[in-house]
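Can anyone check this?
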Amino acid sequence: MSGVVVLVLRLLLVVALYGFLGWALLTLWREINRLGISLAGRRIPALNLIVRHKQAPPIIKNFTQPSITIGRDPGCDIPLVDDTVSTRHAQLVYHHNQWWLEDLASTNGTMLNHIIITMPTVLTAGDEIRCGDTRLIVNLSSNIHVSPTQRLEKKP
């Protein structure tokens, strides 16, 4: 009779173990779904950049991705035809609900509003990024209306 009791106890232990594993997996699955829905609802705000190189007409680039690279490399998100720009010159990254500009150890440095940056710096609307002889004007709103002939100089 003690053999039957041991068998029943073992079966109860197995059922309890599988029940616990099932409960743990169900809890993990619910948490992953909750986080997925939360992340899907988060949107990266559009970033509009107006790219100007010397006397060339401005080019407007729109981005909704979280990371943007700037440089001479054709694989960059903003490839620049400028000999004073490094292959991978700078990077724009969206995190902590803000856009950040970071110099990628470029030869000539990256300037933000006429100041050389040495660490990641937060961008605001209207900021001017300089990579070599190329200027990029930052617009954080999604509705931008600039004609190609419009001057993009800062007003005094």
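Reply from J.R.: I decoded it. Helices lie at 2-41.
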